[in-house]
Protein: Solute carrier family 35 member F1-like
Amino acid sequence: MMNCQEGLSKNSVVGLGLGQFLSLLITSTGLLSSELAKKGINAPTSQSFLNYILLALVYGGIMLYRRKALKAKWYYYVLLGLVDVEANFLVVKAYQYTSITSVMLLDCWSIPCVLLFTWFFLKTKYRFKKLVGVVICIAGLVIVIFSDVHSADRASGSNPIKGDLLVIAGATLYAVSNVGEEFFVKSADRVELMSFLGIFGAIVSAVQISILERSELKSIHWSAGAALPFVGFSVAMFLFYSGVPILLKISGSTMLNLSLLTSDMWAVLIRIFAYHEKVDWMYFVAFAVVTAGLIVYSVGDKMEENPAEVGDEEVEQSKHFDEEAGMSNPDHNFASSSAVEKDELASNDDLKKERRKKILTKK
Structure:
């Protein structure tokens, strides 16, 4: 029977801790969004726009300083930026039509989507124990939902069917975005990914704001009370986006989505200690169940993973981008082929020398 030290590798422990830090950041963005909603500010795309600007400035600056060639085609990042912006928009928009409980439940749709996409596109193999961990995590969230059913704060929403469809669509796009980021993090470059996600995310957001939120922004009376939550939301999202690629590199997109399930429970703890509200005891049970599910999913990574296979897979993915970059740079190809020819000539000369030595020795 393996002990905890054998079951949990260093990367697994780091992944668990980073996952909960990201979950807390998501909780803070939810609280800040609710503060903006109380002040009558309803501009979800505009809130995300500042985050994309920060990503473009910080990581774009780092990329320009390094002066490295791109490892992936720029139009891949255009598609990823479009998917990411619309995922954020659809889920936030759903709160206008359906209940918080429905959003919480249907947002879990991203987990089976991530499992399917990573299995099909990234060829990720899941052991039975990991699937058990996923089921335990979802069971913990279901406990929260059952607790909310009898809550006085629960409302059906103005158009539940429309809201539910928006959540499902947004959760699917979140899954596509997470899996796409995992692929680029493992095969291209984290700084490149974040800089282009920021650039194209900002462009898509700016176009969408000009069409959908222009009148909303004009009606906002900007004061310290309105500006601080707005800026705080952007900073929290920037930190979240900066940490996501690291967790994707360590544990993958499934672990990311499972970790974010605890965000609603962190919100409950904040309500207890910051606002002195009373909550149902089932929240604490749910928190413990989800935590247990995360540990079950993470435990044994050290024994199950084959580093050689993982390394070979990442090398193949990197080779794919290198070949594309080489096709767009014929001078580099010519220099590389010249170097290969020189190596071949040198090896031939060495073989000839060895043969001469053998002949002389026989004589």
Notes: Residues 4-307 form one domain. The two ends are 66 Å apart (CA to CA).
